[in-house]
Amino acid sequence: MSTLAQIEVERRGGTVVAGLSGEVDMTNSARVREQLLAAVPNDVLALVVDLEGCRYLDSAAIEVVFDLARRLGRRRQELRLVVPDSSPLGRVLVLTDVNSVAPVHATLESALAQ
Amino acid sequence: MAELGQRALAGVGLDELIAEAASCAARELGTDFASVVELTGDGRGLIVRAGYGLPEGVVGGVLSTRREELPGYALDHEGPVIVDDFATETRFAASPMQRDLGVVSALVVQIRASGRQFGGIGVHSRSAQQFSGEDAHFLQALANVIGAAAERVRHEEAMRDSEARFRELADTTPALMWMTDPEGDVTFVNEGWLRFTGRELSEDVGDTFGMSAHPEDRDDLLMRWRDAFARRTEFRFEYRLMHRSGDYRWVLEVGLPRFAGGEFVGYVGTATDIHERKQMEDALRRSEASFRDLTDTAPVMIWTTDEHGMVTFVNAGWLAYTGRTLEEELGPSWTLGVHPEDAPTVVAEFQRVLERRDVWDREFRQRAKSGEYRWIAERGVPRFEDGRFVGYVGTAIDIHERKLMEGRLREVYEREHTIAETLQRSLLPERLPRIEGLEIAARYLPAGRGAAVGGDWYDALERPDGRVALVVGDVVGHGLRAAAIMGQLRNAFRAYGLAEDSPAEVMAKVNRLVMSGEEDAMATVLYLVLDRESGEVRFASAGHPPPLVLAADGVHFLEGGRSVPIGAIDLGVFREASATLGRDASLLLYTDGLVERRDEPLEQRLEALADAADRAEGGLEGLCDAVLAGVIGESSPSDDVALLAVRPRPVASESIRFTLPAEPESLQGLRRRLARFLHAAGADEAERYEITLTVCEAAGNAIEHAYGPGDATFDVEASFDADELVATVSDRGHWRERRGAHRGRGLTIIEGLMDEVEVSTEPGGTVVRMRRRLGSTRAA
């Protein structure tokens, strides 16, 4: 049983907000990718993944972000991330240039405002 | 999984739940197919109830229960059945369904409901797959959820049946019956009641309790009723009820609380016409003569005895009831017709009452004319002539229907209790998690028989920063509903406990979650985070009794950090407090049931607890036993009790070194140990994350390039060179950057986050050495 990561999905108008909390590593990244993809129906414009409650992402998890952006892009859907300034993840996301495929916002409000 | 468990309890349809369980199994275990089968009514076939990935037409089909094929084999086999490859399987063959699908590997476990076979759940793969014990454990957990849901459905059907049977019974019995809802409003009165009062159903339903009572009796009646209602206890009262004729007649009303799904759902009651009996007693008091006139025309049963207890008279009503003659009834006929099981005690008791000239009041079984034993209630009062005792005069009424109903209600209630207890146990951690550097012991003591199970729980988990979170809680209420809420809260504390550092914040988040839910849930909780190295604890108490510290210099309670219970106030403000445990100190967390008792003040009970703990010997297990023995004693507790005792065992923090199996599953444990080490060294959250990530990325390479599955290992070492962390990951393979689309990303991370990285290929394998100065990001 995996209690490593939890995903809570909520639809807000044309956007799906997925709160991803816990930890994502190479043991559960495939599952997380599947669950996030399954959360996005064809008729929404964007997926916002809120990483406020997320404490650990490894390279496999970051790969999931790139892959998600690519798949959603094919469907003309956008991927945005929410990473508060206080999050420990910030530096790693900058290093791996995640911003080039999925804009990173400091708050959910700003991610939804776009 | 946890969510599925909640839904199983919350009343989601069984079909829907089974379908969800099948897809959850396939998804989580990564298989092509999953199926859930149920034993058919005749036990000869297995019907496919739901599937995942199965072609059309398979669901609804029936499989054989032959032991020579996997489904039948698994049905008989306790514990999981794992098939690595059907080609080499000798115990049984694949089912036709599995053959058609080209299944290679499979994992099947039993589903049991109410202790009986229900069927099985299985996952099937087209490619060879090795299922682990963990996989089997997961599947069994799903099977248990289905089993619990099936039990609930059966239970609900039984409840519906018993409710329907009750109404049927109620309308055919001459007795007067009523039911109320949990607010006390009357929801049902039977035909007998309407015949008696001469009113319409609509007039008697609603907030009508006591409306038709005699004005002189009404206040007493309502007071007694409210009192019993508030305490959910049996209600018994004699009063005058308005008859259709306009006169008042004496009735004895008896009400019993009803429960469904562990929840109080109202009262069911009967009123028995005791008017004649009352009149008899009055008449007797007035004069013997009028008594004689009345007796033979009265529909109740009446009898008299002499001073030795010999029967001197029974009326026509009694003879009609027993079908015997007056001659048979007179004299030492006391045991005549009394049920053999009741006779000895009835006779002995009557002798005792007779000697003391007490009032005789007893319910027992008496053979009726039809030969059937029926419950009757007898009441007799001593008669005196000129101050001399001359014998008893008594009445008897038939209370058979009421007795049967009481028995049935008790049965329903007890079955309910068993289910709730099973569910609650299934939600508690089967065994406590093994947490390095922490001794743990726990006890769970269910309340005694007759009481409903409560919603107590305990939990322990290791946080990503290396600290340990401990939870002990008690959901207000009892039975199935409390058990379900307990499961939800346990999961909420697990999720928020991992993500939030501050105990007060964890409480606030769980409170918000509970307040936004549909259910009215309330719980007292103690949530505590412990640093094993420094002994620092931070804790928040939501209306929960304080934890106990056992230190070298004695015992004391951890006071402070108190707030209202979870679920009490919308915007509850939660406080937290901190303390530092001395070396070798232990902590004891517990629930209300241990210290709360109606007849003793809480302070006294807490003192008893501290005394018992202070005297305890034999480590944590001995502590738990001593506390239970000293505070609860031999008797079973009136409420559930949960106990959790822990003792941190600090480790050396200058350096760590360990060898781990080259499997992805090793990474989580590695992260925890590194985080603990770094936390002890004063690293902040970002540093802990970045360093554990880098070490794990290097370890990830070692895992990917291990020679064979299972037998390879890798080594990790970490130490400090002044304020500089030095970490080494070495394996026995060749360094290669990982394959796949994320090629290069791992290395980018390693190089970007460490001050220095050096990869060297040595004869025995590859060694990655990394250095990073703490505080550099903060300074920068």
Write the layout of secondary structure elements.
The complex is a heterodimer of chains A (114) and B (780).
Chain A: E1 5-12, E2 15-24, H1 29-38, E3 46-50, E4 54-57, H2 59-74, E5 78-82, H3 90-95, E6 104-105, H4 108-113
Helix pairs in contact in A: 1-2
Chain B: H1 2-10, H2 14-29, E1 33-39, E2 45-52, E3 62-64, H3 70-76, E4 81-83, H4 96-101, E5 105-113, E6 116-125, H5 133-172, E7 176-180, E8 186-189, H6 191-197, H7 201-204, H8 215-231, E9 235-242, E10 248-260, E11 263-273, H9 275-286, H10 288-295, E12 301-305, E13 311-314, H11 316-322, H12 326-329, H13 343-356, E14 360-367, E15 373-385, E16 388-398, H14 400-427, E17 438-445, E18 454-462, E19 468-478, H15 479-499, H16 503-516, E20 523-530, E21 536-542, E22 548-551, E23 554-557, E24 562-563, E25 577-580, E26 586-590, H17 592-595, H18 602-615, H19 619-631, E27 641-648, E28 655-661, H20 666-680, H21 685-704, E29 713-721, E30 724-730, H22 745-753, E31 756-762, E32 765-773, H23 776-779
Parallel strand pairs in B: 21-24
Antiparallel strand pairs in B: 1-2, 1-6, 2-3, 4-5, 5-6, 7-8, 7-11, 9-10, 10-11, 12-13, 12-16, 14-15, 15-16, 17-27, 18-19, 19-20, 20-21, 21-25, 22-23, 22-26, 26-27, 28-29, 29-30, 30-32, 31-32
Helix pairs in contact in B: 1-5, 1-15, 2-5, 5-14, 9-10, 14-15, 15-16, 18-19, 20-21, 21-22
Concise structural overview:
The complex is a heterodimer of chains A (114) and B (780). With 114 residues, chain A is an alpha/beta fold.
Structure description:
The complex is a heterodimer of chains A (114) and B (780). Chain A is an alpha/beta fold and 114 residues long. Chain A has one domain (5-113): Transcription Regulator spoIIAA (2-Layer Sandwich), CATH 3.30.750. Chain A contains four helices and six strands; from the N terminus they run E-E-H-E-E-H-E-H-E-H. Chain A has helices at residues 29-38, 59-74, 90-95, 108-113; strands at 5-12, 15-24, 46-50, 54-57, 78-82, 104-105. In chain A, strands 1, 2, 3, 4, 5 and 6 form a six-stranded mixed sheet that branches. In chain A, strand 1 and strand 2 (15-24) form a beta hairpin. The longest helix of chain A has 16 residues, at 59-74. Chain A is globular and about 30 Å long. The model of chain A has no long low-confidence stretch (mean pLDDT 90). Chain B is α+β, with helices and mostly antiparallel strands. In chain B, a hairpin with a 2-residue loop joins strand 29 (713-721) and strand 30 (724-730). Chain B folds into five domains: 2-158, GAF domain (Beta-Lactamase); 173-273, PAS domain (Beta-Lactamase), CATH 3.30.450.20; 276-403, PAS domain (Beta-Lactamase, 2-Layer Sandwich); 428-648, PPM-type phosphatase domain (Phosphatase 2c, domain 1, 4-Layer Sandwich); 655-779, Histidine kinase-like ATPase, C-terminal domain (Heat Shock Protein 90). Helices cover 38% and strands 30% of the residues of chain B. In chain B, the strands form six sheets. In chain B, strands 3-2-1-6-5-4 form a six-stranded antiparallel sheet, with helices on both faces. In chain B, helix 1 packs antiparallel against helix 15. The interface between A and B is large, with 33 and 39 residues.
